[in-house]
Amino acid sequence: QQQVKQSPQSLIVQKGGISIINCAYENTAFDYFPWYQQFPGKGPALLIAIRPDVSEKKEGRFTISFNKSAKQFSLHIMDSQPGDSATYFCAASVSGNTPLVFGKGTRLSVIA
Amino acid sequence: GAVVSQHPSRVICKSGTSVKIECRSLDFQATTMFWYRQFPKQSLMLMATSNEGSKATYEQGVEKDKFLINHASLTLSTLTVTSAHPEDSSFYICSAWGGAKNIQYFGAGTRLSVL
After folding, report:
1. Which residues pair with B73 in a beta bridge?
2. Minimal C-alpha gap between B29 and chain A (Å)
3. Considering only CB atoms, which chain B residues are within 8 Å of A104?
């Protein structure tokens, strides 16, 4: 079953703009929410992750916003660059050695 | 730190042959490794969870006799696709759980093409 819903499916952003990708989850036991960046033919690379004890986490140009009551979390990419063009996946899991459940992905294109 | 090496990165084989993919945690011990499959323009789908020294747990719909998983040591898990067919062509990605942060670290993936 689809436990993590991700939107939009694709996104086009102007260089320097803000890219926003949203995810919603169903399983209230999830307590680890990472975002991955994937380039064609490569494995996913961890960008940033958050746990439910905070509502926001920022690392460089990447920020996760987390709304526990709404069971939603989002990725904001500030000052988007053409090099950010990739597919982004949100995921969720229960802490520990449990598998990640991935969203369907968002194809981001940053145009000059 | 926390590097996961996956080999080979790409393999082309004939229908009916078997292919082995290796996943190694280079600088940490991984009691649990995961195998995912990704079809073009789709998300990662979990195939199986592999715990060192025990049998792998397969997800519903994944044939355990076709996708043999061995996790014989704390740093190595292998996935063998037996009697591969064109429909098995996909991108296979492993991950290893552990390291300083106790999270999953992903390999670079293996592109399997079955002719």
Report:
1. B76
2. 13
3. 42-43
Instruction: Read off the pLDDT of residues B48-106 as tens digits, 9 standing for 90 and up.
Output: 999 988 889 999 999 999 999 999 899 999 999 999 999 999 999 999 999 888 899 99
User: What single letter denotes the amino acid at residue B83?
Assistant: S
Between chains, do B32 and A97 touch, taking CB under 8 Å as contact? Answer: yes
Beta-carbon separation of B104 and A100 below 8 A? yes
Give the whole-angstrom CA distance, residue B73 versus residue B29.
9
In angstroms and rounded to an integer, the radius of gyration of the C-alpha atoms of chain A is: 13
Predicted confidence at residue A89, as pLDDT, reads 98
> Alpha-carbon torsion A82, A108, A52, B48, what sign?
negative
pLDDT in tens, B23-34: 999 999 998 999
A44/B97 touch (CB, cutoff 8 Å), yes or no: no
Q: What are the φ/ψ torsions at residue A84 (nearest 5 degrees)?
A: -85, -10
**pLDDT 10s digits, A101-110:** 999 999 999 9
Of the CA atoms within 13 Å of residue B87, those in its CB half-sphere come to 1
Contact between residue A88 and residue A76 where contact means Cβ atoms under 8 Å apart: no
- Rounded Cα gap, residues A87 and B40, in angstroms: 12
